[in-house]
Design brief:
There is one protein chain. Helix content is 14%, strand content 25%. It is α+β, with helices and mostly antiparallel strands and 95 residues long. The protein has a domain of 65 residues. The chain has a two-stranded parallel sheet. A two-stranded antiparallel sheet has the order 2-5. A hairpin with a 6-residue loop joins strand 3 and strand 4. The radius of gyration is 16 Å and the shape is globular. 0% of the residues are buried. Pfam families: DUF6886. InterPro entries: DUF6886 (IPR049253).
Length: 95
């Protein structure tokens, strides 16, 4: 499940991002953060342009929920649930 604020939806539908496939052997897990890092230079094995992210989510059975504000979700970070958020500083009324 993924959440997005309504005012970002048009950009989500219009923008193109690039997904890079990297060789896995040089990466290490950061633990509970759900992120993997490499401490050296890595040459991507492949780069794929991805457009219409809303459709890509649907193809991967990720439910996209459009909300007016992410603020009501903030309390989830104080629970035992595993949640993550990137660039939440851009969310309305997050602080």
């Amino acid at each position: 499940m993924a959440f997005i604020e309504r005012h970002w939806l048009e950009r989500l539908e219009a923008e193109t991002i690039h997904r890079y496939e990297m060789p896995a052997e040089d990466f290490e897990d950061l633990g509970d953060a759900g992120m993997w890092v490499c401490r050296g230079c890595v040459i991507p094995m492949e780069r794929i342009a991805v457009s219409r992210l809303d459709r890509e989510f649907a193809l991967r059975r990720v439910e996209l929920r459009v909300v007016d504000s992410l603020r009501p979700l903030k309390r989830l970070w104080d629970t035992s649930l595993h949640v993550s958020g990137i660039r939440l500083r851009n969310a309305r009324d997050w602080e």
